[in-house]
Structure to design on (313 residues):
């Protein structure tokens, strides 16, 4: 392949998305050695796979992760098949690439999550793109990119709700402010001790509205399961300062942010998992996880190459 095969890029990207989109184009070109495909509208971009390569599971780091994704897509809604299987830039396949190996291996899940989750982990089960029956909770479509049911080192039952973000912002639509959801959201908030002021209008701010709704769902589940410890985790790109700022500002609205809110950059996750998998069958997976999502220096030379094709978007 020539350098032009890194594929068209999108002119409207912010700097971080532009850089990470190209890195995913590099991953497809240099590591997967595949041609680029098109988005759902038929526009060619370097970070998309062809239909055939998507069906073959090439958006996933291992065949087992691909199988986990297909299993999840067949079970019920929640996974956008085109975005998940064809868009290398999407955070949805990233969620499967990070947590897929943990879904069918509780021992691996406990070992890798122990250094990352509040209270430590002695046993764990991991579910991807998961939500409880909505009629029992927020009566909306709120769900978790990954949900971890675990037991802490002190023996307490716990729930970690994980949101994964590669470059996307939190949902750009406000819910729970003057709409049909507001009453239920505030009922859950008032029954919780998580927020300094459960009626604060700032909770529904667009910058972290999705984070608040996810946290509300954690609290709603806890209200039905007395004794359950709940926390909200955000796995994000280490260069995503926009996301980091939103997490920090949302944390200022909480009574105990250190207990219920965890900002988890991808480099910290990879650094924690690499030594735990070095002498195991999972070492190649974690190495590829680092190269695909964290090690942008690998594509730096190609990124500055002026011969890369640029689309208009």
């Amino acid at each position: 392949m020539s350098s032009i095969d890194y594929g068209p890029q999108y002119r409207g990207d912010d700097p971080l998305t532009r850089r990470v989109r190209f890195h995913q184009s590099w991953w497809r070109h240099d590591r997967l050695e595949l041609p680029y495909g098109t988005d759902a509208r038929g526009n060619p971009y370097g970070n998309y796979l062809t239909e055939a390569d998507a069906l073959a599971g090439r958006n996933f780091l291992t065949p087992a992760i691909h199988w986990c994704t297909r299993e999840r897509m067949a079970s019920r809604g929640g996974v956008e098949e085109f975005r998940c299987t064809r868009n290398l830039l999407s955070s949805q396949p990233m969620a499967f690439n990070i947590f897929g190996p943990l879904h069918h291996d509780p021992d691996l899940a406990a070992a890798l999550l122990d250094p990352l989750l509040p209270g430590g982990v002695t046993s764990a089960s991991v579910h991807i793109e998961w939500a409880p029956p909505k009629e029992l909770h927020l009566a909306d479509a709120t769900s978790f990119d990954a949900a971890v049911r675990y037991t802490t080192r002190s023996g307490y039952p716990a729930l970690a709700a994980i949101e994964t973000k590669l470059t996307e912002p939190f949902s750009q639509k406000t819910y729970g402010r003057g709409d049909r959801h507001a009453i239920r959201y505030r009922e859950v908030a008032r029954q919780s001790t998580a927020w300094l002021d459960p009626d604060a209008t700032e909770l529904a701010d667009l910058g972290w509205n999705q984070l608040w709704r996810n946290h509300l769902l954690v609290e709603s589940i806890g209200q039905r399961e007395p004794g359950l410890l709940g926390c909200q985790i955000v796995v994000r790109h280490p260069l995503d300062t926009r996301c980091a700022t939103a997490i920090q500002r949302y944390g200022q609205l909480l009574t105990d942010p250190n207990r219920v809110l965890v900002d988890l950059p991808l480099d910290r996750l990879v650094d924690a998992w690499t030594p735990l998998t070095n002498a195991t069958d999972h070492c190649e997976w974690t190495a590829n996880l680092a190269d695909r999502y964290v090690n942008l220096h690998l594509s730096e030379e190609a990124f500055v190459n002026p011969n890369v094709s640029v689309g208009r978007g």
The two ends are 23 Å apart (CA to CA). The chain has a mean pLDDT of 94.
